[in-house]
Amino acid sequence: MAEQLYTIPVNDAFDTDCECPLCLMARDLEKNAIEFTMGPSYMEDDNRAMTDKLGFCAKHIRMMYADKNKLGVALMLNTHMNKTMREMRALAEKDKPQAEGMLARKTGGLFSKGSDKSPVVKYIENLEASCFVCQRITPVFDRYIHTIFHMWKRDAEFKEKLKNCKGFCTYHYGVLYEKAAINLGQAELEEFISVLNDVYFDNIQRVNEDVSWFIDKHDYRNKEADWGNSKDSIQRAIIKTEHTIIEE
User: Fold this and answer.
1) Domain containing 77: what range?
2) pLDDT at 181 over 50
3) Which of 5, 28, 86, 132 is paired with 13 by a 20 to 30 Å CA distance?
């Protein structure tokens, strides 16, 4: 199968000796998105308008702060806070909060369909759910997921790569499990889920056994025993269970 724009990073990830190829793809997308955000593009009007509107999630603002371009972070935070304060102040000045008892009498019940959240609360909830970096990553990562199933159906070599990889973190196992039903026919789906389950459970068990030996190695009776593959087992277990990006 000829490699195309999206098959190259998918193949590269599955060629890498890692505990979750999808985490690796997500990490690369994240690095690229942070580099784009903190590069010269942050001074462009259209990008600044989007960062002002969307803001950043807690994870990505920490990554941005770790970047050397502290002035860029300051400028984006400054204009984002100016916009947020201006819009929230306008909403707060118009909002007329009501006690729950009053709201229940007006709507016929506290949890009736007529009840609604304060515009201030809705504004904050929408803001908390948005992130400029996440918005750049998500559509590309979704395309990678679609490409995995496309390659599963048409690329015998890739199918073997997936069967022989070191598995996936629990989060991305769930992503593949859910999206398989959308992207595959029934016969293909049954085969894929069977392989996915084997790959996931065999490898999470492998890592868990390494963690168990790491624990047992701290027993004085095992002082002279070999560490085996357990020295980095905690890092690998975190990848498997917590969907945390750790450099492997």
Assistant:
1) 7-94+130-242
2) yes
3) 132
